[in-house]
Predict the structure.
Amino acid sequence: MGWSPRKGTRAAQKLPIDWEELLEKSFLRKVYAIKEEDILPQFIVNSDQTNVVYAPGDKKTWAETGAAQVELLGGDEKRAFTVNVSVALDGSVLPFQAIYTGKTSLSCPSPLSPAYDDTKSYGFRFEPSGTNTYWSNHEMMHSYVDNILAPYFERVKAAAKRPPSQKTIWMLDVWSVQRSEAFRSWMSKNHPTIILDYVPGGGCGQ
């Protein structure tokens, strides 16, 4: 029938014109904080959020060879959840936070799910977003910091025999919620020892 597998593509995001300057400033901010606050590798955590699609597929279907437009049945379906993943500079992996669409725990994995107890024992958190999307929000960020990030920093500071006043660094991207005045003010009030270090946007990467 003259069909062949086809897949759409898109152009990669372009780097900002001043990307080298942005990275240099980011580097110097880290150097200054690490030196002045005597920050150890385990006191530096890099976080990122990603959506996990239940059945991602490969966006391919069968169509006539050479066709300019290829319709994909169900291609706009996106059943997913968000995972907040963090790794410390010494290689330690923090517990994950998984966020699901919905307002109650019924939106989250069942306690009867295989390995559920194991994940909870490691400190993983399964939380409803409280909204009609699976994306994180202020409340979810507060929960992540209060229940995962801050307790981790407390443990490693105690293990290193450092005082509670020891400063730490949290690397995160420039997503609007994370760089908002509301979130930064909340962090300053509730977790003043955590330095927010924003990774330059526009493809500079984490």
Observations:
- The CA atoms of residues 16 and 202 lie 6 Å apart.
- The longest strand covers residues 44-53.
- The chain has four helices and eight strands.
- The two ends are 46 Å apart (CA to CA).
